[in-house]
Write a structure and sequence with these properties.
- By secondary structure, this protein is mainly beta.
- It is built from two helices and 15 strands.
- It is 9% helix and 44% strand.
- The strands form five sheets. Strands 3-4-5-13-8-11 form a six-stranded antiparallel beta sheet, with no helix packed on it. Strands 10-9-12 form a three-stranded antiparallel beta sheet, with no helix packed on it.
- Bound molecules: D-sorbitol-6-phosphate and zinc ion.
Length: 188
């Protein structure tokens, strides 16, 4: 996209999550090694193929103070063992950067954990749920439905992503299928 500091528009397919024009990035099972609790189930899934877990359509702007980045994420339905497909999840490198997640289609949970206290929350999301993610809260979306979970995110362009910090700390909440229903479980 040519950036000339002029207003511009994109088109978002609200059901499919596809943004035109935008750049798509696919995250596959092989990119998410170590993420899911059941390592044996992960190994078995990998033997079946390297399935897509989510696709992100980013609307690029310069990563400078004052700019707003936005994207859609299409999180496909699926499970590794009993654990539903989820995004990797992250803190923002800029500890003052908040974010808004708005669900356009599908259903699931947004899992959050606060960096200092370790306080954790799960928020049920369906089409139309818009969640304010305060600064310092790591965030991860989980698809508990049978169709793709599509959400639109907007956040400060200079926020950056800290995946490593979340990986080291671990995410205390997980969502598993129990009796054909999602169940949010606290680990440890
Ligand atoms: C960025 C925002 C989303 C995620 C995307 C994929 O701040 O939260 O665009 O990047 O949903 O998730 P993840 O955890 O792999 O970046
Ligand atoms: Zn974020």
């Amino acid at each position: 996209m040519n950036w000339d500091k002029r207003p511009f528009a994109v088109t978002i397919d609200l059901e499919a999550g596809v943004v035109t024009p935008a750049e798509a990035r696919v995250t596959r099972l092989s990119d998410l090694e170590g993420l899911f609790v059941d390592e044996e189930a992960y190994r078995q899934e990998r033997e079946k193929g390297d399935l897509r877990v989510y696709t992100v359509y980013s609307i690029p702007v310069p990563e400078e103070r004052g700019q707003l980045l936005s994207c859609t994420t299409i999180l496909y339905p699926g499970k590794v063992g009993k654990e539903y497909y989820m995004t990797r999840g992250h803190f923002h490198l800029d500890t003052q950067a908040a974010e808004v997640y708005t669900c356009l289609s599908g259903e699931g949970y947004l899992l959050l954990v606060e960096d200092g206290s370790g306080e954790a929350e799960s928020i049920k999301v369906v089409k139309g749920t818009s969640v304010y993610v305060p600064a310092r809260w790591a965030h991860r979306m989980v698809n508990c439905g049978k169709i793709p979970l599509v959400f639109y995110a907007v956040w400060p362009a200079e926020a950056g992503h800290d995946y490593e910090r979340l990986r080291e700390k671990g995410f205390p909440l997980r969502v598993f299928e129990e009796g054909e229903r999602p169940s949010v479980v606290r680990l440890g």
